[in-house]
């Protein structure tokens, strides 16, 4: 209201100044209230634009009837501008039509005939100019409001994406910690139980079990320290880079599990060397988690089979165990997977590559984990040589 008050005061001063220089001026106690009544509504034009416009229409008619110089034209133009900007074109058009009609009638009554066209043209020109100015500033105001809305939307989307990225990173860290800790702790528990059972009857075997516990614990601590260092210093170049665990590391994984007393048989294709590093790590972690679950739930008396196959479309990972000989009768109700952190982690790893995971008990006894990682064999889809379907894929058994 401060700016509008200043405008109203300026109009009043100019109008009164021109009035005082007119030798045929009317009585001041009539003129001054009319001038003030004409300009004062401008102060409230933003808060009550429609009411102010029609008050200006009435007071402007009185002002023009007294043949006062300036305020009626200026305040009428301001009213048209205000309605265009703050109310809308439809209301502004109706008001402008009424205002123009009233102005034309008043000019025809009060002004000499030879000045009709000039006066009408000047008045209509003021209203048209006010309308165009309102359109321009209204469009600019709308553009600025839209720009601010877009910036707010982009900021909101950026915060949302940042939250999603943080959640994804937290999930990835949780998977890595679970895979490292769960497997190592399972191996440690199995060897600790074995050492306790054989410490009196076979002290040498107990010592070997304790050596395995020590080695497994140190390896887990090393991996945990490396993971923490990466989290604390993501851009550090002083630490040596370590290769990602992949399919080749399955041999070491199986050897460690066998050292725990678990009977594990492995059959894998020999054409897995060109797998993407991330996919190879996913295969490794799924096998690791499945073997860890066997150690935790079926113990070392279960016979376990690991199969890693590859065709032209996907890598298939299957880990089954016989449940330590506890068969499930055909047709019996099968318990649903518990859906713990391990299964959740496996499912997330598989879904990253658009694959599928099925986990559940087998009718013949034991448990089965089957994961499918979609991939493309090198040379397929690009016009390169295709594998001969009549030639069996090479396999590595251990």
UniProtKB/TrEMBL annotation:
Residues 4-141 form the DUF7134 domain. Its EC number is 2.7.13.3. Residues 281-376 form the Histidine kinase/HSP90-like ATPase domain. Residues 169-235 form the Signal transduction histidine kinase subgroup 3 dimerisation and phosphoacceptor domain. Keywords: ATP-binding, Kinase, Membrane, Nucleotide-binding, Phosphoprotein, Transferase, Transmembrane, Transmembrane helix, Two-component regulatory system. It is an enzyme of class 2 (transferase). Residues 376-398 are annotated as: Disordered. Residues 388-398 have a biased composition (Polar residues). It catalyses: ATP + protein L-histidine = ADP + protein N-phospho-L-histidine. This is histidine kinase. It comes from Haloechinothrix aidingensis.
């Amino acid at each position: 209201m401060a700016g509008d008050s200043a405008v109203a005061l300026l109009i009043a001063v100019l109008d009164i100044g021109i009035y005082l220089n007119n030798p045929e001026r009317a009585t001041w106690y009539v003129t001054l209230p009319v001038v003030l009544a004409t300009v004062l509504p401008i102060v409230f034009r933003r808060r009550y634009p429609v009411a102010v416009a029609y008050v200006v229409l009435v007071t402007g008619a009185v002002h023009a009837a007294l043949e006062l110089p300036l305020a009626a034209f200026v305040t009428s133009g301001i009213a048209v501008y205000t309605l265009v900007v703050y109310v809308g074109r439809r209301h502004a058009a109706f008001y402008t039509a009424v205002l123009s009609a009233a102005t034309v009638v008043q000019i025809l009554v009060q002004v000499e005939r030879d000045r009709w066209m000039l006066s009408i043209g000047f008045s209509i020109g003021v209203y048209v100019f006010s309308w165009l100015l309102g359109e321009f500033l209204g469009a600019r105001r709308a553009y600025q409001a839209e720009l601010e809305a877009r910036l707010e939307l982009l900021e909101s989307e950026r915060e949302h994406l940042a939250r999603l990225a943080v959640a994804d990173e937290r999930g990835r860290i949780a998977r890595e910690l679970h895979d490292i800790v769960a497997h190592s702790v399972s191996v440690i528990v199995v060897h600790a139980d074995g050492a306790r059972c054989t410490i009196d009857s076979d002290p040498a075997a107990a010592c070997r079990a304790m050596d395995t516990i020590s080695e497994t614990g140190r390896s887990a601590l090393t991996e945990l320290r490396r993971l923490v260092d990466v989290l604390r210093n993501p851009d550090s170049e002083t630490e040596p880079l370590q290769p990602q665990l992949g399919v080749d590391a399955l041999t070491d994984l199986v050897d460690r599990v066998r050292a725990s007393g678990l009977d594990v048989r492995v059959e894998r294709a020999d054409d897995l060397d060109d797998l993407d590093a991330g996919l190879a790590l996913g295969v490794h972690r799924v096998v690791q988690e499945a073997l860890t679950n066997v150690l935790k739930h079926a113990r070392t008396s279960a016979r376990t089979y690991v199969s890693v196959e590859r065709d032209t479309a996907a890598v298939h990972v299957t880990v089954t165990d016989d449940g330590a000989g506890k068969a499930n009768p055909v047709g019996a109700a099968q318990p649903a997977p518990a859906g713990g952190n391990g299964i959740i982690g496996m499912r997330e790893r598989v879904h990253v590559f658009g694959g599928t995971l099925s986990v559940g008990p087998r009718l013949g006894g034991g448990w089965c984990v089957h994961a499918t990682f979609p991939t493309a064999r090198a040379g397929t889809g690009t016009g390169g040589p295709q594998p001969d379907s009549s030639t069996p894929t090479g396999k590595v058994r251990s």
